[in-house]
Specification:
This protein has 355 residues and is of the alpha+beta class. Helix content is 30%, strand content 29%. The longest helix has 26 residues.
């Protein structure tokens, strides 16, 4: 009996040591993990919003925790134990490192790119929301802004860098990322392309030899990640502080919250979690990590989750019966499906009075 107990203790010690070693050892892969949704209202300061907790139209914020919420995902390196058993963390997905940080891209570069995406998403959200409310918003789409240059790519070899704006490609004007993709539609990997780039007020032409995309060997790329470049002048002050959160997927949530603060009661006492990248034309683009975001919405006690129509099937597959999934393709659809009731007066030339 004594020998059996000693053997059992030794086995437990060995197993515990092995588990600890696996927990501490890096795996070279990443985990996508759920993060609980958080209210957007404290992050958004809108000129004309009441300082006493009231909305700009005088209505009281809904009691009981209602409101517009955004949801992010946590991304971190996985250890060896998590690589072997990724589902020891609820809702975790194991992702190859190159999908998070393409070869040669550092953590710092990825975060910088995400911050640029977040900044632009906030500007677009404010423009779309104010335009919907009837404000005169001066918006000029100006090209495809580079947010990340992949090391060793044709773009890197040519000296392109984040912040550069592609104005023209293959002789075609480029006003958006979609137009840049269209300009490359007939280009084959290995072909040379010419792009006109704006930097610090000047413009320069570059000739680059394309390479095949890692995801699609038949598609020619130059090795950049781009976002919408635009000059946006708002008639009222809107300040959004999302802290360390990056990426463009909170754009729809920000826009809905701005409407809620200036235009009436969207949530109507409901807890509404929103995810979706918002474009200047009001279209809502799909986002990543939808399974984790659904779990984050559930943890926050959401009644409704608004998702891009391209993510709807996956979101519905992971949602409980208590969470209503509302798929939308446009900002107007989101307002309609949430039964938005406007309580805002029509804007003046200078926007609503700040009192």
């Amino acid at each position: 009996m004594f020998t059996w107990r000693r053997s059992l203790v030794a086995a437990i010690v060995v197993l515990g040591g092995l588990t600890l070693a696996l927990w501490l050892a890096p795996s070279g892969q990443y985990l996508l993990l759920p993060d609980e949704a958080q209210p957007v209202d404290p992050l958004v300061a809108v000129e004309g919003e009441g300082a006493d907790g009231n909305q700009a139209d005088g209505t009281q914020a809904a009691p009981g925790g209602g409101g517009i919420f955004m949801v992010d995902i946590l991304v971190r390196k996985a250890n060896l134990l998590e690589r072997l058993f990724p589902r020891i963390n609820e809702g975790a997905d194991l992702i190859a490192e190159e999908r998070i940080n393409p070869q040669g891209v550092s953590e710092q570069q990825r975060r910088q790119s995400n911050r640029l995406d977040m900044t632009r998403s906030q500007q677009i959200a404010a423009a779309v929301a104010l335009q919907h409310l009837g404000y005169d918003v001066n918006v000029q789409s100006s090209g495809a802004e580079i947010s990340l240059v992949l090391p060793g790519s044709p773009a890197a070899q040519a000296g392109l860098r984040p912040g550069d704006v592609i104005l023209e490609a293959e002789g075609q004007p480029v006003k958006s990322p979609d137009e840049l993709r269209d300009a490359f539609a007939d280009v084959q990997p290995g072909d040379q392309v010419t792009v006109a780039v704006q930097r610090s007020g000047g413009q320069k032409d570059y000739t680059l030899t394309t390479r095949a995309s890692d995801e699609d060997p038949e598609r020619a790329v130059i090795g950049v990640v781009v976002q919408q470049a635009a000059s946006i002048n708002l008639p009222i002050d809107i300040d959004i502080d999302a802290g360390a959160i990056g990426g463009p997927s909170a754009g729809l949530a920000f826009a809905l919250d701005i409407i809620d603060e200036l235009g009436g009661d969207i949530d109507q006492g409901r807890r509404i979690v929103v995810t979706g990248e918002l474009a200047l034309d009001g279209s809502v683009q799909p986002v990543g990590g939808i399974e984790q975001k659904v779990i984050g919405a559930e943890r926050a006690g959401a009644d409704i989750m608004v998702v891009p129509i391209g993510n709807a099937r996956e979101a519905q597959a992971h949602a409980s019966d208590d969470l209503a999934i509302v798929p939308v393709a446009t900002f107007d659809e989101a307002l309609r499906d949430l039964n938005w009731r406007s309580g805002a007066p029509p804007p003046t030339d200078s926007g609503p009075s700040t009192g």
